[in-house]
Amino acid sequence: MLVGIPLDNQQRRSVQPKDCADEMAHHLKQVAENRCKAAFSQVFGYFAPRLRSFALKQTGNEALAMELVQDTLSNVWQKAHLFNAEKGSPSTWIFTIARNIRYDMLRKQQNRKEDICADDLWPVLCEQTADPNEVEMDEQITLDQLGTLFEALPEKQKVVIEAIYIEGKSQQEVADQLDIPLGTVKSRTRLALQRLKEMLNDHD
Amino acid sequence: MINLHPTAQQLMTYVDGSMEPMMALVVACHVDMCAHCRAKVEQLQLTISDNAFALESQDNVSFGDMMASIMALPAAEPRVRPASPPTLELDGRSFVLPRPLRRFVDKTGNWSHLLGNLWQAPVDIGGGGKAQFIFMEKGGRVPEHTHRGNETTLVIDGEFSDGLGHYDSGDFIHMDGHHVHTPRSDADEGCLVFSVVDKPLHFTSGIARLLNPFSQLFF
Ligand SMILES: [Zn+2]
Fold first, then answer.
1. Which of A46, B84, B124, B143 matches a 20 to 30 Å C-alpha distance to B181?
2. Is the residue at B59 inside a domain?
3. What is the DSSP secondary structure assignment for residue A164, as one 8-state letter?
4. Which residues of A touch B127 (CB under 8 A)?
5. Which CATH fold topology does A118-203 show?
6. Does residue A102 sit at the B interface (CB-CB below 8 Å)?
7. For chain B, what is the domain count?
8. Is residue B66 exposed (0-12), middle (13-18) or buried (19+ Cβ within 10 Å)?
9. Which of B49, B57, B116 sits opposite A52 (nearest CB)?
10. Half-sphere exposure in the Cβ direction for B98 (13 Å, CA)
C-alpha cells in the first residue's frame, strides 16, 4: 500500500466497470429519485479519475480534460433520470455522454474565426430571402446567365479569367503567356471578379 | 431504402471519439436513421466504454471542489416532449430532421436560392468547415465538381443521383478529391440533404469553373 492513499481508493482502482455496473446503476437510481448526494459521490469517486484519464488521452491537455470531466459529470448529476439500466451499463452511458460533449467541445474550438459566408461577396451567387417562406423565383441566376455575363466582360479581363478559372492556369503562367507583368494579371483578375459581382447583383 | 453506410472503420472512430467532429455529427444522424448501424454502434460502445474506463489512473488527482459545485446544480427539468419535434421549413414544406440535428434548427440561417434550382441554408454547428442544408428541386443540379477536402453528405428526405450513384433517404456519402460528381435530383418531391465540407469545392467543368473564385462561399 502506498503511503498517503486511502485503502478505499486503492481497492476501487482495480474494480473494472463491468464488475461494479449493478452497484453504479443503483447509485444512479438514487440520484435520479432522491438527488442522493452520497450516491453521487460514489459515482463521482469511481468515474471522475477514469474520465480524466480518457479525456487526457483524447485532448492531451489537463485543463480541457478537467472541463470534460466536469461537464460530463454535471450531465450525470442533472440527467440521471435518463439513465436506463435495461439499455446499457452506467459506464457505457457515461462514456457516450463524455464522447458527445467532446465532439461539441472540438467543434466549438475549431469554429473558424472569420466567417467568409457573411462577407459582402455572398449576394453574388444568390438572393437571400428575408423570410424563409418568401420565395423569389424570378431572382434566380442560371449558369447560362453567368455565361452571358462572362461574355460581357472587357476582352482583356475575359482572357485572364478564362485562363485562370476555366483552363486552371496559375496567375504567373498567364503573365508569362500574355507577356504582361504579374501585377497586371492580378489587377485584371480582381477587376473582372468585381465586375462580375456587380453585374450579378443588378442582373434583374 | 438505405444502401450506403459508414464503413466499419468510420463507425469505430465515431464511437471511440477520434473522428473529425463535423463528420461525427453526420455519422450520428445516419445512426439515428439506420437501425442496422445503430445496433453496431451500441455493440461497439459496450466494448469501447469498458476499455476506456479500465485505465487505472496512476497519479492521485485532486478534483478540488468539482463534486460540490456539480451537486449545487439543479436537476434538469423533466423532459417535456413537444407535441411535435422542431422541423426545418422550406417553401411551405416541413422536414423532420434526424435527432442529432434538431438542436441546430435554431442555428440554421435563411434559405438562399442558388443557380440551378438549388436552395442552401447554412447551419452553425461550429467546427472548422462548413455545414449546410441543400435542397434540390426537381431537376435541380449542382455543377460538376471535385473536392479539395472531404464532403460528407446525408440524404434526409428524397432521392438524388450524381453520376456515380443513386442515393435515397438515410444514405451516407463520403467524397474527397478522388471523386468528381454532378449531384442532381429528378424526384418529384426534390431532395433535402445535410452536408459538411472541410474545404471549398472545386468546380471542374465549363462555365461553372467561374464559380471557383466564390466557391468558399458555398459547398
Ligand atoms: Zn447504416
1. B124
2. no
3. I
4. 106-107, 110-111
5. Arc Repressor Mutant, subunit A (1.10.10)
6. yes
7. 1
8. middle
9. B57
10. 25
A9-115, CATH topology level: Rna Polymerase Sigma Factor; Chain: A (1.10.1740)
Q: Per this entry, what is the length of chain A?
A: 204
- Comma-separated ranges of CATH 1.10.1740.10 domains in chain A: 9-115
Do residue A143 and residue B115 have CB atoms under 8 angstroms apart? yes
Does the pLDDT of residue B180 top 80, yes or no?
yes
Q: Which residues 43-62 on chain A approach chain B with CB closer than 8 angstroms?
A: 44, 47-54, 57-58
Chain A contacts of B138, Cβ < 8 Å? none
CA distance linking residue A26 with residue A68, whole number of Å: 24
Please report whether residue B207 resides in a domain.
Answer: yes
Q: Identify the weakest region by mean pLDDT among A104-113, A177-186, B170-179.
A: A104-113
Say if residue A173's pLDDT is above 80. yes
Which residues lie across from B133 on neighbouring strands? B121, B194
Q: What angle do CA A104, B125, B128 make, to 5 degrees?
A: 85
- Which of B152, B210, B218, B219 to substitute to test the interface with A, most A CBs within 10 Å? B210
Q: What is the pLDDT of residues A25-69, one digit of tens each?
A: 999 999 999 999 999 999 999 999 999 999 988 888 889 999 999
The three cell numbers locating residue B47: 466494448
Question: Taking the mean position of all CA atoms in its chain, how far away is CA A156?
Answer: 42
- The pLDDT tens digits of the residues spanning B27-40 come to 999 999 999 999 99
A146: cell is 453567368
Domain range holding B183?
88-217
Residue ranges matching CATH 1.10.10.10 in chain A: 118-203
pLDDT at A128: 34
* Chain A residues with beta carbon closer than 8 angstroms to that of B207: 143, 146-147, 150, 166
How many Å lie between the centroid of ligand 1 and the Cα of residue B15?
Answer: 14
Residue B126 sits in a domain whose CATH number is 2.60.120.10
Whether B70 is covered by a domain: the verdict is: no
| CB–CB contact B113 A5 (8 Å) | no
Asked if the structure places residue B69 within a domain, the reply is no
The neighbour count for residue A181, using CB atoms within 10 Å, is: 10
B176: which residues sit within 8 A by CB, 6+ positions away?
A: B147, B149, B150, B151
